[in-house]
Amino acid sequence: MQEIRDNITNISHNIRDICIRTGKDPDSITIIAVTKTIDPDRINYAVECGIQNIGENKVQEIMAKYENIEGNVKWHLIGHLQTNKVKYIIDKVELIHSVDSISLAEEISRRAEKAGLVRNVLVQVNVAQEDTKFGIDYEETESFVKQLSQLSGIRVKGLMTIAPYYEDTELVRPVFRRLKEKYDSLAEADIINVEMKYLSMGMTNDYKVAIEEGSNMVRVGTGIFGARNYNI
Ligand SMILES: *Cc1c(COP(=O)(O)O)cnc(C)c1O
What does the pLDDT look like over 105-153, one tens digit per residue? Predict the structure, then answer.
């Protein structure tokens, strides 16, 4: 458990250092602890260590852990979301990072309205055009965001991407830079009901580069909890 505390401290220090060096406010960066495969005891410990945002990529795991996490945490759905599962998490998650189809956005909007809510979402963009990744095409981002702006049960609050994995993180820098450009241009476009508030990019391997390139929301799993064991 102590490692979890040390890891969180290290990451916070790294983020602070980058922010000081690049003239950003360290408090403007949200760390999302990615808790997939992690048991509630360890998650609760991370929360005791100061984690306030947790990210899961499966609806099932949110459902299984939801009641067991203590403290005032915000849940983020960061993985691919199937339309038929929206109803289970609509009242549980603060932010859905993975909106990449109109039908999904419509279902989130419909379920949110039914629950008397307006749900914040991010649009997932497949910047590097990898076949293996979800997300809309980069070039479609603006028209997609405009379509989402018509849905009254959701608010678009920014963009998210999962970058390709490179050992040498310098190789991923252009991916982050491109998404930041899109984020800035959408902010400038000033679309009604749309706010560019969160740019969710960067994971354990590349969060430093992501922050340098303008991310304000990093999703860190392994870097906090250690290697995941998918067999438990
Ligand atoms: C698992 C996951 C992460 C965290 O990955 P690490 O490399 O363990 O930090 C971040 N984002 C998404 C969407 C994930 O599924």
Answer: 999 999 999 999 999 999 999 998 888 779 999 999 999 999 999 999 9
Inside any domain, residue 111:
yes
Position 228 in a domain: no
**Is 223 within a domain?**
no
Ligand 1 near 179 CB (within 6 A): no
Q: Model-level pTM?
A: 0.96
Q: Which atom of ligand 1 is nearest to the CA of 219?
A: 10
Q: For the residues of 142-201, what is the DSSP string, one character each?
A: HHHHHHHTT-TTEEEEEEE--PPP-SSGGGGHHHHHHHHHHHHHHHHHT-TTEEEEEEE-
Task: Supply the CATH number for residue 181's domain.
Answer: 3.20.20.10
Q: What is the mean pLDDT of residues 51-57?
A: 98
Nearest CA to ligand 1 atom 7: 204
Nearest Cα to 101, choosing from 35, 34, 154? 154
Domain that holds residue 90: 2-218
How many domains does one find in the chain?
Answer: 1
- 153 CB near ligand 1 (under 6 Å): no
What pLDDT does 229 receive? 81
Across the chain, mean pLDDT equals 96
Residue 225 included in any domain: no
> 219 CA to middle of ligand 1, Å?
6
Report the residue among 78, 80, 207 best suited for mutation to probe ligand 1: largest number of ligand atoms under 8 A from its CB.
78
Tell me if 218 sits within 8 A of 207, measured CB to CB.
yes
